[in-house]
Amino acid sequence: MTSRGGSQQELRAWNLRRLLDCLAQGPLPQIELAAASGLSEATVSNLVKVLLDQGKILLEPGVRNGRRTKVLRLRGQEASWHLGVDLGRTAIRVASLTASGDARVHTAEVSAPYPYSHAIDTVAGLVARFTEDGLPAAKPSGAVVAVPGLVRTGAGTPPGLLGEGYHQAMGWGSVPLAKDLAAALGVDVAVENDCNLAALAEMHEGAAQPYRDFMYLYCDTYVGGALVLDGRIYRGGGGAAGEFGHTSVDTDGRPCWCGGVGCLETVIGGAALVEAAGGGVDGRPTTVEQVVEAARAGDEACRDAVARAGTAIGGLAGTVATPLDLGCVVVGGALAGAGSLLLDAVRTRLTSFVGRLRPSTPEVAVAALDADAVLRGAALAARQAARAS
Predict the structure, then answer these.
(1) 61 close to 136: Cβ distance less than 8 angstroms
(2) Structural domain of 335
(3) Residue 263, SS3?
(4) Most buried one in 175, 204, 234, 237, CB count within 10 A?
């Protein structure tokens, strides 16, 4: 027969194992450890002291819900956080993402074009600031960098090498971005197209959450996109899949900077939209944001310009979505701010693609994370890469 003392010892040993099992899922503040284990805060407090004395766990600075705190983690368990970087045209932004999902962002305003060396130095400086935020380790587990341009993939392409002409506003030429940032940060770095990462974020946390097959369109000064099939970004043989802005929608249309003719960007991009709304003369709108604002206020020329853009988007979306049987079309960027003025035109055009094989059109939705989608997607991709390694 087991003695009372033996029963208490067994219970204590079981409770200690319970705490260790909970911490195996990731670092936790003590109060959250109590909730996760189902034990009282007093019991957890006593047991934590035992585990600290035994050297099985560590107490260290952390971030929870945007605030500094103390977290407990298993000794030997990597105190990991994940880094997302967005090399934008007007700002360089970095985001930390902890195992618990807490995020922290630091930003540096820039003006394109900025030197390549400035981009590297700025990212390194911003990342160094995370140590001031109380993150549990000086370096992330890895990083993913978002760039507004084509990232080549496929045979014979060095990983992270941006092709000639990358980011036409910068003129950096062919640069080993992943290699240089890895050297500056001391971690593994991957490079990814910004729209691909925005789509990833919308799939996990935004407008595309219910779908595993959808297309994402970014409609602003420039037009980009991404294609998600079976829950994964589809890049194609060379990394250009999803570049919907440079898909020809008018074979007799205008030349595009990419070398194509009648690309979607020449029809609905910033310059085309402003021209359709009045050309920026006599106080007329000069930016996509101004066209959208005027359209929402009732300006007929701007409303017509937005509606024509919606029709063009709907035509391209139908051409892509029908053979691939996509469930959703997500529209982001400044043009998406027109809301129903844009989406109604997209939906109307999409109805012409409905037939016996496809009795309904894909859902059309405005991106939910828009301004933060790229950076959030980069951090999520870094976390996915760490978990897969």
Answers:
(1) yes
(2) 207-367
(3) strand
(4) 175
Domain match, 185 and 275 both: no
- What is the structure's pLDDT at 134? 66
What average pLDDT score do residues 370-381 get? 92
Whether 198 maps to a domain, the answer reads no
Question: Six-digit token pair at 371?
Answer: 């301004």
Write down how long the chain is: 389
68 strand-pairing partners:
63
* Alpha carbon distance 339, 29 (integer Å): 42
Q: What is the CATH number of the domain that holds 239?
A: 3.30.420.40
The candidate with the shortest Cα–Cα distance to 218, out of 194, 248, 191, 249, is 194
**Residue 374 domain-assigned?**
no
* Whole-prediction pTM: 0.78
**What is the distance between the alpha carbons of residues 42 and 48, in angstroms, rounded to a whole number?**
10
User: Residues 91, 218: one domain?
Assistant: no
Residue 209 and residue 196 in contact, taking contact as beta carbons nearer than 8 Å: no
Counting the structural domains of the chain, the total is 3
* pLDDT tens by residue, 211-226: 999 999 999 999 999 9
**Beta strand residue intervals within the chain, DSSP E:** 57-64, 67-74, 81-87, 91-98, 103-109, 143-147, 161-162, 175-176, 189-193, 214-219, 223-229, 232-233, 328-332, 363-366
Cα 305 from Cα 292, distance rounded (Å): 9
Residue 33 phi, psi dihedral angles, 5° rounding: -65, -40
Between 274 and 238, the more confident residue is: 274
d(CA 385, CA 389): 6
235 and 331 together in one domain: yes
Higher per-residue pLDDT: 166 or 341: 341
Packed helices 300-324 and 288-296: angle between N→C axes, nearest 10 degrees: 110
Residue 187 and residue 274 in one domain: no
**Token code pair at residue 37:** 């284990």
93 lies in the same domain as 65: no
